[in-house]
Structures are given as structure tokens and as C-alpha cells.
Amino acid sequence: MPTYEYHCPACGASYDLQQSFSAETTHSCEKCGEGVAKRVLHAPRVVFKGSGFYATDGKSRSTSVSDTPAADTAKSEKPAADAGAEAAAAS
Question: How far apart, in whole angstroms, are the C-alpha atoms of residue 12 and residue 8?
Fold first, then answer.
């Protein structure tokens, strides 16, 4: 049976109870007996295992396409005539 945490807003008490999955989510407080204790919900623990959870796997498609060797060489290579014209213009 799972253990659930309960909190009573009347007295501020928090306590754990072992109950079945089908148990009610509210009941009278076990500490003060006056308030209505409610089940506290917690986010489940998540464990990422396997491929697909690395920093490099989340890149956008446009970034990964431009990182290909063919794209890099096309961007970095300039015709010799253009390179000479740029050098002359810079002087």
C-alpha cells in the first residue's frame, strides 16, 4: 500500500498514512480531530534513461543542417577573384 501525506489547515499538522489507492482524499484530522485533513499531492520523481536526453539531442533542425561539412565548406570558401578584390578594396 502506498504512503500518503496529509495536511490539516485547522491545526497545521502534517502526517503520513498508509492507505489503499481507492481511499478517500479527505478525512478528519488525526492530531486535532476538528479539521479536515487533505491529501497533499507531490510531483512524481522523473528519471531520464536511454538515448534522447542529452544536450546535443535538442538542437533545432536548422542548426543541425548548417553544421554539416558540405554547408560549412560552401560558406567558408570564396572564389580567388573575390578574395583579391576584397583585399584591394581594404587597402
Answer: 5
Between vectors from CA 67 to CA 63 and to CA 70, what angle results, nearest 5°?
A: 135
Window from 2-16, 18-32, 51-65 with minimum mean pLDDT: 51-65
Chain CA centroid to CA 46, Å: 9
CA 54 to chain centre: 12
Task: Name the pairing type of β-strands 3-7 and 36-40.
Answer: antiparallel
Going by the DSSP 8-state scheme, the letter that residue 35 receives in this structure is S
Cα–Cα distance, 22 to 7 (Å, whole number): 19
Residues 6+ apart with CB under 8 A from 51: 57
Q: Global pTM? A: 0.47
What is the rounded distance in angstroms from the CA atom of residue 59 to the CA atom of residue 6?
42
